[in-house]
Specification:
This protein is mainly alpha-helical and 144 residues long. The chain contains five helices and no strands. 58% of the residues lie in helices and 0% in strands.
């Protein structure tokens, strides 16, 4: 589970933060509702359908809230930070793979993600190709 224990800095309740953590951990809505709300029927073992429906409606409404979406994104970023280094290392290994399909797929993945970083019009991206001729890049001072 994520390291976040309180939603106080995001102005959300502890129950909302708990629901966000469970969602980030991949829990389905039914299980989140069971944990975060009292949805048990009188027998204490099964979920009351009306209570479950109300709890899931509440969760759906919560997950549309900007503050809760922000908390969810922060938790996912925390998770991804833990795996980013390993993923980049794996892509590097795959780019150098003997299997051309694997190498091309890894290279394509890298280029797609790098492109996402520079999707606004204010940034320029220079890609250096190993073994290719040096043709310069914007702002290197070449004159015609």
């Amino acid at each position: 589970m994520a390291k976040f224990t309180s939603g106080s800095t995001l102005n959300i309740t502890k129950t909302q933060m708990h629901a966000v953590q469970l969602k980030a951990d991949g829990w389905p809505m039914d299980r989140i509702a069971m944990v975060c709300f009292n949805v048990l029927a009188e027998d204490g073992e099964t979920a009351d359908p009306k209570k479950m429906a109300k709890a899931k409606d509440t969760l759906r409404r919560w997950f549309k809230n900007e503050k809760i979406q922000k908390a969810y994104k922060e938790i996912l970023l925390e998770y991804m930070n833990g795996y980013a280094g390993a993923a980049i290392k794996k892509l590097g290994e795959q780019i150098n793979a003997k299997n051309a399909w694997v190498a091309n797929k890894a290279a394509n993945d890298v280029l797609n993600r790098v492109g996402d970083l520079f999707n606004d019009n204010e940034k320029e991206m220079v890609i250096r190709v190993e073994g290719g001729p040096k043709i310069g890049h914007p702002g290197d001072g070449d004159k015609d």
